[in-house]
Design brief:
Blueprint: E1 2-8, H1 12-22, E2 29-36, H2 43-57, E3 63-69, H3 76-91, E4 99-105, E5 115-122, H4 135-149, H5 160-169, H6 173-183, H7 196-204, H8 209-222, H9 226-236, E6 238-242, E7 249-253, E8 258-261, H10 262-265, H11 270-277, H12 283-298, H13 318-324, H14 353-378
Antiparallel strand pairs: 1-3, 2-4, 3-5, 4-5, 6-7, 7-8
Helix pairs in contact: 1-2, 3-4, 4-5, 5-6, 8-9, 11-12
Amino acid sequence: MIMTYSKHGRSKQDCNNLIEHLLNPENESIEILAIGNSMATDLPGVIQDMEILRDGCGALAAFHHMSISPSIDYTREQLMHAAQALCEEFDGVGGTRPWILIAHTKPRVSGVGNLHGHLVLGHSDGKKCLKDRLSLIRTEVVARAVEHANHENPVKSRHAKVVDKLLRQRGKENVADWLITTFGNDQEPPKSSYGSKSRQAAKRKGAQLPKAKCAVCDAFVNAGNLLEFKTRLAALGFQIERGTKKNVWMIVDGSGNSIGALDRLLKLKRHVASAMMEGQDGFQDAKQSTANDRRTREASPRGDHTPARAGREIKGGPSAAGRADGEGSRRGNHKPIAEPRDPRRAPDVGITEHQRENGRRHRGVGYRRALITLRRIGNGIQNFNAAPLPQLPIDWDAKDIWGIPIAPPKYPYP
């Protein structure tokens, strides 16, 4: 499952763009599954309620948009449970902010997971704004727990260590152990073939990146050697070109549009893909690497497992050990070690008395100029572009035009 998170609704145009996106007719079906904490009955009405609450408390954003994209076929009840978990994570149990859940049915290239949802949660309840600190990490924590509950293959996290820590703090050790058993202790962050911005940009040009990626992967799996792989790509209208970065090969279509990097599309290590393209007989090694990675993703063990980190040695000395036992200072453990001071560097003597005295003189001059300007305004002098007027004497008992005494300067004049 992939859950995305974004904070929107800073202007009327942002709200209209979201409504247009969620009601896009390219979806086979658009269904409102539930509306909470709002008397509205449609999407524009709920968004308008969120705008009113935003303006009422002076917030910058009106809502938070979260998408729920499962990798298997979900029912509408499962989609509702996932949305409820997100609402409880950000708005708390029995939240007061308006929200709406919209289900889209859209055919996927893989053939599964055609049903996905969009949750729009209000940012304000009229009094307080939603606390969205660590929103991306908290969204991943909810996604991993929902995957475990619905027997879905887990998605590799970009914040694996923090997600593991939060899961254990919330008493979900079984989910944390399940992730460690699937991916191991030291898992590398995932590398997506393309992002949502790249997909939308290619879509405007007429290219469908998801379909192209599946076609490239099928050509690679069914090919027996590199020449056959290139022939299959040519039949699909694609070709492989050397990228601008070192050891990077790109796949482009006939119009010159970039489909993506070869290593990311095939989920290979960069050096493995480079060895395959450089003619070092690495094609079979690349296919073996892809097969091993696929078997790892498909093997989704469930049940109680012994944590792989149970017998792991704690590194970092007494601070790390104390942290593992729940002790130690949270800030002190992460304090950087100061570098040794260069003996050739001049000592830090701070501000000298000479510099302090110069500061006093400059502040006194500025204060004197301000008093002169105020007195000129009080005397009705309007034309500041005229010839400079003679210096006005300083009257220590002077008063302004309203009869308020002018305070004497705090610093002696030079």
